[in-house]
């Protein structure tokens, strides 16, 4: 008996579903938004412009029907011009969103394969707490100094992708050679870390700047969650290579870090070749207050960015609080794994803690945009400070590695909401052509000056009173500071913002 012919409609339906799931139309949803991401709760869009008046004919006349009186001509601005086209720039590929997700996943996987274990590696070299603090402060402090300069260079030359890929490759090579420098002397190790930090400083902010120009507005958190997943997978996998005899095992980890970085280089090189990492289109919207035009010269463009930043008091306040959160992060990132070792933890325990942190951060990154709109930027920053205080106390009181897992869960959730909020805030505020510079300022305050200060303060205090007491003291200090910040926002402050929502009103809108 012959077989019945296949159902063509069913086959077409299945093919259509597969194309819907994997095709270019699978873009991130753009939620309905207010004119600016950081309008206060209850804020609304500005009222529409009034209608033009009508001319009314006298009664009994046979005049034509009323018609609008022409309004006076409005001043012409450069925003009325269509965006310039450059035939030398290739259009982004249709599968740009999956490629960006893959880039974030692979990039943070390579970082997670080594960065969480560097303090443990320094500790395995029998270095004192002060020396570990100094080594941990080199990278963030160098980021604070050179990251804005790299960002300005990328904006002026319009070569974000080239600078990103070159700096990433050089930083990976220098980081992989760290054990060879450590066998010589501590000074040689510090020189290696310093040179690596110079090239590593701009890579995260350049990747974020390129990504935010290519994705739908409000989708940064949902894109960044792939980096959170990658970091968790990389740190969890590499933690299994560590044991109580870490000398040989750490050499394997450094080698594995280099191998894990190769896919990131390949995907980034492909995106650079097709033009997606260079001159990405920028989403435009009419600002509430005109942003300064970027000068053509390199120095003038950088100075214009500085002027724009320092003329916005609300953004300066956000930068200062970002520095404060970075300080707390610098303490934890450099000494949490050491604290786990002190209570009997192994590489498997550190691996599990990173997996818990990544799992907690993924859903928070997904909902970060809507939560930031509901809570407001100041509330997000205060909640981040309170969460760091809780983490300090958990690390201090924990007597087993398993007792510290709630602190790692808080880490993932808190960082996801905080970083998504401040990154989107800085990008929305940035003048056209200065996106990398503005994001570099945020990265410099958090991952630069903040974390370097935290590493130095934590290292000095840990060498005097021990890790347990150090975490407890930082916990009380962070809790007190969070209370002061909340009172400043809620009351009639000398900063002139009034209540917590008022900081939103002073932020100019860049895009919708």
TrEMBL record:
Residues 1-27 form the signal peptide. Residues 100-472 form the Major facilitator superfamily associated domain. It is found in: Membrane. Its main location: membrane. Keywords: Membrane, Signal, Transmembrane, Transmembrane helix. The chain crosses the membrane at residues 102-120, 132-150, 223-242, 254-272, 314-332, 375-394. Residues 31-90 are annotated as: Disordered. The keyword Transmembrane helix applies. Pfam families: MFS_1_like. It comes from the Eukaryota. It is a multi-pass membrane protein. Residues 45-90 have a biased composition (Pro residues). InterPro entries: MFS_assoc_dom, MFS_MFSD6, MFS_trans_sf. Belongs to the major facilitator superfamily. MFSD6 family. This is Major facilitator superfamily associated domain-containing protein. It comes from Tetraparma gracilis.
């Amino acid at each position: 008996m012959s077989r019945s012919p296949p159902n063509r409609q069913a086959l077409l339906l299945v093919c259509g579903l597969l194309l819907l799931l994997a095709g270019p139309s699978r873009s991130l949803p753009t939620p309905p938004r207010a004119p600016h991401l950081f309008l206060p709760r209850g804020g609304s869009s500005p009222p529409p412009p009034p209608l033009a008046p009508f001319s009314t004919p006298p009664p009994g006349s046979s005049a034509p029907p009323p018609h609008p009186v022409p309004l006076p001509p409005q001043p012409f601005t450069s925003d009325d011009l269509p965006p310039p086209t450059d035939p030398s720039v290739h259009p982004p590929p249709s599968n740009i969103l999956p490629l960006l997700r893959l880039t974030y996943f692979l990039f943070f996987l390579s970082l997670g394969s080594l960065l969480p274990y560097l303090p443990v590696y320094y500790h395995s070299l029998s270095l004192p707490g002060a020396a570990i603090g100094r080594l941990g402060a080199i990278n963030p402090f160098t980021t604070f100094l050179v990251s804005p300069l790299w960002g300005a260079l990328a904006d002026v030359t319009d070569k974000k992708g080239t600078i990103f890929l070159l700096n990433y490759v050089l930083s990976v090579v220098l980081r992989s050679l760290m054990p060879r420098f450590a066998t010589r002397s501590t000074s040689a190790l510090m020189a290696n870390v310093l040179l690596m930090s110079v090239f590593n400083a701009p890579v995260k902010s350049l990747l974020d700047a390129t990504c935010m120009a290519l994705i739908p507005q409000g989708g940064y958190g949902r894109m960044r969650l792939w980096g959170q997943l990658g970091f968790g997978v990389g740190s969890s996998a590499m933690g299994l290579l560590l044991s109580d005899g870490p000398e040989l095992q750490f050499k394997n980890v450094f080698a594995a870090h280099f191998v894990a970085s190769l896919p990131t280089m390949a995907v980034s090189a492909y995106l650079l070749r097709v033009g997606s990492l260079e001159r990405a289109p920028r989403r435009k919207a009419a600002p509430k207050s005109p942003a300064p035009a970027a000068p053509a010269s390199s120095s003038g463009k950088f100075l214009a960015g500085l002027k724009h930043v320092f003329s916005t008091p609300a953004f300066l306040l956000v930068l200062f609080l970002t520095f404060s959160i970075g300080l707390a992060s610098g303490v934890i990132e450099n000494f949490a794994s050491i604290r786990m070792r002190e209570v009997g933890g192994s590489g498997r325990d550190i691996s599990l803690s990173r997996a818990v942190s990544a799992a907690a951060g993924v859903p928070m990154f997904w909902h970060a945009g809507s939560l930031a709109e509901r809570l407001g930027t100041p509330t997000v920053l205060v909640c981040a400070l309170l969460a760091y205080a809780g983490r300090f106390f958990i690390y201090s009181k924990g007597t087993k590695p398993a007792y510290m897992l709630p602190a790692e869960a808080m880490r993932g959730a808190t960082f996801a909401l905080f970083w998504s909020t401040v990154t989107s805030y800085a990008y929305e505020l940035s003048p056209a052509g200065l996106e990398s510079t503005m994001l570099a300022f945020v990265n410099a305050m958090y991952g630069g000056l903040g974390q370097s200060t935290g590493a130095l303060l934590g290292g000095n205090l840990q060498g005097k009173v021990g890790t347990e007491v150090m975490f407890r003291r930082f916990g009380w200090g962070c809790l007190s500071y969070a209370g002061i910040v909340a009172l400043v926002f809620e009351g009639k402050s000398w900063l002139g913002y009034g209540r917590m929502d008022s900081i939103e009103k002073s932020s100019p809108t860049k895009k919708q």
